[in-house]
Prior knowledge:
The structure is a homodimer.
Chain A: E1 8-14, H1 22-39, E2 45-49, H2 69-83, E3 88-97, E4 100-109, E5 112-118, E6 142-145, E7 148-154, H3 162-169, E8 174-179, H4 187-202, E9 206-210, E10 212-215, E11 218-221, E12 225-227, E13 233-234, E14 243-249, H5 266-284, E15 289-293, H6 298-311, E16 316-320, H7 328-341, E17 344-347, H8 351-360, H9 372-393, E18 395-399, H10 403-408, E19 421-422, H11 429-445, H12 454-458, H13 478-490, H14 495-499, H15 505-517, H16 519-523, E20 527-528
Parallel strand pairs in A: 1-2, 2-3, 7-8, 8-9, 15-16, 15-18, 16-17, 18-19, 19-20
Antiparallel strand pairs in A: 1-14, 3-4, 4-5, 6-7, 9-12, 10-11, 12-13
Helix pairs in contact in A: 1-2, 5-6, 5-11, 6-7, 6-11, 8-9, 13-15
Amino acid sequence: xxxSIRQVSIALAQANFKVGDIDGxxxxxxxxxxxxxxxxxxxxxxxxxFSELALIGYxxxxxxxxxxxxxxxxTALQQVANLSAGITVVVGYPWxxxxxxxxxxxxxxxxxxxxxYAKRCLPNFQVFDEQRYFTAGTxxxxxxxxxxxVGLTVCEDIWHEHPVAESKAAGAELLININASPFHSGKLxxxxxxxxxxxxxxxxxxxxxxxxxxxxELVFDGASFVVDASGDIFATAAEHESALxxxxxxxxxxxxxxxxALAKSELASIYDTLVLxxxxxxxxxxxxGIVLGLSGGIDSALTLAIAVDAIGKDRVExxxxxxxxxxxxxxxxAKLEADALGVSYKILPIEPMYDAFMxxxxxxxxxLAPDTTEENLQARCRGxxxxxxxxxxxxxxxxxxxxxxxxxxxxxxxxxxxxxxSALKDVYKILVFKLSRYRNELAASQxxxxxxxxxxxxxxxxxxxxxxxxxxxxxxxxxxxDQILEYYIEGDLSVDAIIAKxxxxxxxxxxxxxxxLSEYKRRQAPVGVRMTARGFGxxxxxxxxxxxxxxx
Amino acid sequence: xxxSIRQVSIALAQANFKVGDIDGxxxxxxxxxxxxxxxxxxxxxxxxxFSELALIGYxxxxxxxxxxxxxxxxTALQQVANLSAGITVVVGYPWxxxxxxxxxxxxxxxxxxxxxYAKRCLPNFQVFDEQRYFTAGTxxxxxxxxxxxVGLTVCEDIWHEHPVAESKAAGAELLININASPFHSGKLxxxxxxxxxxxxxxxxxxxxxxxxxxxxELVFDGASFVVDASGDIFATAAEHESALxxxxxxxxxxxxxxxxALAKSELASIYDTLVLxxxxxxxxxxxxGIVLGLSGGIDSALTLAIAVDAIGKDRVExxxxxxxxxxxxxxxxAKLEADALGVSYKILPIEPMYDAFMxxxxxxxxxLAPDTTEENLQARCRGxxxxxxxxxxxxxxxxxxxxxxxxxxxxxxxxxxxxxxSALKDVYKILVFKLSRYRNELAASQxxxxxxxxxxxxxxxxxxxxxxxxxxxxxxxxxxxDQILEYYIEGDLSVDAIIAKxxxxxxxxxxxxxxxLSEYKRRQAPVGVRMTARGFGxxxxxxxxxxxxxxx
Lengths: 552, 552
């Protein structure tokens, strides 16, 4: 018997799952189902759609290899079945069959599983390692729901043509795509264009549900949406927040209540990603708060603003650790920054321990000229001080370095690189400037005082590790440096190809060589928010021992 | 015309390639070919076989994504062709065709390429990520050589049945298998058994050529060999050394000059792997020498012996950094160890800088009880001191911690964990004791004095960070701890399953929890030699933010 076709509603359940926490994730699923039921009008059939691997969170990494996984999933899916009374639930989970593990999407209805689909396209590039764990599915999945044929796909499937085309060919009138799609700059627009094109080409509305939240280096930005058969984007869930967005469809699967997406500005999107990454790392790992070194420079000023926006001023402590090269301007600015945000602020000079080290090392260093050793020693005295406060108070050290520094190794291992997490690890210096201005403008638009003093943004950056030192003494100007880095790191261009873009040969040679030589530092760096399509985490896997010549 | 069948000789060219250094690797290839020609008797046809991806070294990681790779390979292969005058050369290299990259083995003869084979089985588990880069080949390759049919396979292929069976079915009378097979304990015996079984089952002699040398966390142990059609292992090249082993075959491909393998003892093999890993990291990265902290304990004593065996006593400096909890026994033993090995030895007390930190932090810490903060501070003062010496002298800090400590987090980040490389990172404490005795016995057998004082091996291990502290106050005895760790880390067993093996519930719960909580420390640890089938490097990819409960 063909079921009668009625009006239907689909809830895009965009939740902040925690990797490995199956019980916690089930609670989020249960609450979202209850909330969707409460929001839905009683005359409409309801489907609640969760993201990829929702039950275990994404990416579970080697937890997928634990032998008890399957037993845990069986138990958890029994609960999902119980939750499906009177509605339809779509959820992602890992599932083992005949010794092979699949990245599965399953559909439950009134206590019964009515469909399951194994992800066909398994990404094994950039930050993704799915072929380490999963076997690719081979079948298209279309299930019947309220008289409609609904196709099911998982994340990467949608970035290829055949899973969409084959779903349509198998009769799908609507396609569901569940995701764990991490943010990088420009990604949202890519998703919109991709799905809009699929929808138009196949005259097929698509429901796109994404995870939201931070998980180590990855931030999932949410922004779930629906695209109608003519390719228009509707009913977009908020970026960077948990959300439950109900979309109503008429009997012909036309969207009834959608509104066109209003995406955030690029800078707002980036800034909010940084805040979410920091917040979730702190909260999911249950740190009491954040401590960070405030130098009077722009990186630590922006990092402080992110920290406060992430977890509130009462849980953030800023420490200025002056030395003889610290300018009075830096002292003043650090104080202004801490005061503007209302955080606890301490001044702890490093001269006593620096002198103690140098005195103890006097014989060891005799006859050897001062060099970067003494600069690194300053940075390391600061690192040890922050870590002592961290240990004593249960506050996590938030690292303040940016991507330009991490790229060329202008950062001291065990010095300014100490910390549990890094906000700006994948943010180039030029973007640090832009984000600082953005945050000030945001404050101004809310009638608040300047967060980052103007002269911190405009004066030449300096590590203040030697008299009158400025960064650009040793490096090309950041506007040049960042472009070379982007061509080399994100673009994988050779030295010759970058020079051909119009940069000075000596700059390109020097910068790329510094990048190669600094791999060992990056390997010991804290994790930090991935912001680009090639961050310095799982995105870029370089040997330390490396004889490659960047040249041609 | 069928070529006449003559006696033939195959040179197993076991070389120490450097990742990325194509020119350097070509030089090694050129020298080995010249040496093989010189060693071969003029009446025998010669084939020289190199290891997997020999031209770029293994594992090249993301260097494989660089756009100039293909051009460089084309240039390099022209040189290989030139080197094949009068002989046959088998070599591994990455090769791009129609936008797909293959892990290729090629055969050259008299300037011409006569065969090429794309690896079919691409490992994407443990430390391997080959599916990130390569497309799997689909074809069997059998080429004619001196009237014989010779099959060609690459590394992982041989761990599966079908590439061997299909080579045989395609007419192969001899199978060549080129490898980049890293050492872990027990691996050599696995290789012997595997290839012996293949050979017997298919009545097919197999030539197994492996890379040798250290590349970041991996050590390739060499030990190339030939197995005859009855499954006997012959003509084994040395473990842990570059080697060029010529094997003569008669007209029926019976081995003429083989000798049965004499494998090293398990402890010798492990010890030599550690030495090779350290040596190649130092030499390939061009460090002037090694500096390490000598505590009087067994880990640093063994690490010192490894350092000296790796690069010689004149390039190693040991530093004892006493504090008020350092026993006089430790002071005496550290001196004995340094003297026994003849290395430079310094004593640099940490009291002055420790006191300077504590005084500066007095207000910050007021009202808070002493805890591990003060212990970590001692370790960090030592870390900063070692790094200052490292920076000033160009010596790399060799980290001294072991796998048991790294597992449960009994190590201070930025303290005793500082360093560029770690010798014992994948060596459990019980094995540290065994290796120490092994090294002393080796010295005794060579008529040399004891390297590690007996009481350093027998007295209870202590970090000496608090009065009368011993490790086993806070942890189960190492004999128990190491077993629990092995079940949890290598075996992936749940807490319940480990308890069922007969361990105390509170021990298992506590230890596994410590392992989970310490992931953030391991993420910032230096790379170190992988010794087991699950080291703490690319082998074990765990989330830091992790809600998994180890329980059932």
